[in-house]
Specification:
The chain has 129 residues and is α+β, with helices and mostly antiparallel strands. It has one helix and ten strands. The longest helix is centred in the first third of the chain and has 21 residues.
Length: 129
């Protein structure tokens, strides 16, 4: 009886870990969002929060506009502080609390830009259409 209970607990922990790592429990973040995208003075502003990953994880943006990514942190102490955007050849260490602006040249329609932490554990995508 005791071994069955232990086996059930271990199986539940494994399933929970898989769901957490694959993001299956966060299905709302899989849909592109425009909530954090604004156009001000012919410039597109995208706001992303870095803390325990990046939020939102998938962003829909307009193509062919100069863009600024505002990376926001607030008491962040995980690897999401070590930001890498390969297509821009960009790497930085974000502050634990603050905002960093990243200038992005106009992107063609159909382009997907990916940002990730230096360890590759956390990522976000910006889809330009």
């Amino acid at each position: 009886m005791k071994s069955n209970i232990i086996a059930i607990i271990i199986a539940g922990a494994l399933i929970g870990g898989v769901l957490l790592l694959t993001g299956a429990s966060d299905s709302a973040q899989r849909l592109p969002t425009l909530d954090n995208v604004k156009i001000i003075d012919s410039k597109q502003i995208i706001e992303i929060v870095a803390r325990g990953g990046y939020s939102p994880r998938i962003i829909a943006a307009k193509a062919d506009l100069p863009t600024v990514i505002k990376m926001k942190t607030n008491g962040t102490f995980d690897c999401s502080l070590a930001l890498v955007i390969p297509s821009l050849d960009y790497q930085t260490q974000l502050p634990t609390t603050g905002v960093i602006d990243i200038d992005v040249p106009p992107q063609k329609s159909g382009t997907t830009m990916r940002g990730l932490c230096a360890m590759g554990m956390f990522s976000f995508q910006i889809k330009f259409n």
